[in-house]
């Protein structure tokens, strides 16, 4: 059974186990209080329920043992806390309560007084039920690593409930005792929370824990153009673009429509196509409406004295490893650009390939609403394909769409005519927050590039399908056959080349991208290691405890920042303990995939890699781009629910923080 299945089964089981023990205890208590004849029947049901609960508990132990095979991260809190809390009282129940229940079914009496038998028979059953419920609490409150605060909270609740029950099951007492018991219980909980310090770790109110020392990220800029004092005499080509954030309406061919935020009135924004070596200069202007205002461009300079209103914007160059100051993350590398303001980005287009750009202010809202576009860097020596098209997949509302070469998106089948025999490259960009399964049928094809980088030794695929992570890119190449070619996205026909006939959609197996291409020489020595355990846990997020998307048990901004030193090779292990897929996206770097679930990978460099539930990925990051970088899940809703943190270089600091309305997710 896969790890993901075991995780799902475990979640079902721990509810069933708790329900079974609670039911057993309830039925037993009822039976003990009934007159002999009726009591006998009830106790029989209780005994059967007890036996079932024992079996289910054993099953939980077995599932945990299975999960342990995938790694300690998946079971730490179960082995140290959740299981002992249910297994130990379950053994007592099996040894003490069950035989007495069975005796009761024969005689109608478990022996002894009613109160005495309640304590002997029902108490172990109730405590087992509490242990099972505490196990559920563990699953919600504790992730990996197990924290003393979380453990203390669970243990205190368990102990308090058991103590109160012991008193309540005893001989009748004055109501004062009940109040004392309840008081003790509340005190114990308060104590546990105090000892555990709740969940937040105190620092990081502004979103960083790298301190204020070191070179400011602000100084790590892209090159100035030669005309502005850059390298004298450099014969560089400067490509200038202006991107104006402004409202727009998307009208889809099916008739559906959506209110959007756009760059330059088009959604997606303009395709920025430059050549390797160019100096790219992009002026961002925000003309989104000010709340209650007209959106008129004002002086254009940030005014820290004024509250920032309306929708701020930035531009992040997704997958493009620009200098840190050009990375476009509000609160980390700049302040959000508010309506009326402008900001200039400048970077050298050093790497060829397919990339995209998007706003990073309130990105979980802004990107789905349309503040994105594609960036293509043509190699200095041209690609061999004469036909070269960029495809943006994006969902507006609930309508999946395709935009070809920056044209208006279509939620119906898009048609393209290409000359038979032409070498063709389709650059497919997933701008959604969910992964998509692609299929290309009608011609054998290759994945020529992944996340912008060429794939060495790309082999022909025929009818195979591909899993493309949210934010990821594949360049697909093929020779146009005499017949039609069909591209499907999420099993939906989306692009038809040379119709009208339609080939059957690709239905082959899904390619394991981590094993595609020729294996590269991979680093074997690492200067540093770090582990990111992804989960959905109760954590403080947005100032309140809530079920959050967590990394090592904490949510933004309480996730400690991994710090690296320039030049180091870092091994990052990413473990997904949860039930959601997480497309992890460290900014400023491509990572080489070393292995997935222990199976060695070919080492393709990626900037967005999809860690499915139960998976363990190992990737290598070479710290060659100093900065304070954002690192997050590109299911942007998950980022907004806490799954974002930093990667910082020693000696680099940032003057920006989460004040001034900066809100990266
Ligand atoms: Cu496209 Cu921080 O992401
Ligand atoms: Cu996620």
From TrEMBL:
Extent of Polar residues compositional bias: 296-310
CDD domains registered for this protein in UniProt: CuRO_1_CumA_like (cd13861), CuRO_D2_2dMcoN_like (cd04202)
Plastocyanin-like domain sequence ranges: 248-289, 311-380, 549-645
InterPro entries: Cu-oxidase-like_N, Cu-oxidase_C, Cu-oxidase_fam, Cu_oxidase_Cu_BS, Cupredoxin
Keywords attached to this entry: Membrane, Metal-binding, Oxidoreductase, Transmembrane, Transmembrane helix
Pfam families on file: Cu-oxidase_2, Cu-oxidase_3
Membrane found in the keyword field: yes
Region (Disordered): 215-235, 288-310
Keyword Metal-binding: yes
Transmembrane segments: 12-32, 44-75, 81-99, 120-144, 150-169, 181-199
Protein name: Multicopper oxidase
Source organism (scientific name): Microbispora amethystogenes
Lineage: Bacteria, Bacillati, Actinomycetota, Actinomycetes, Streptosporangiales
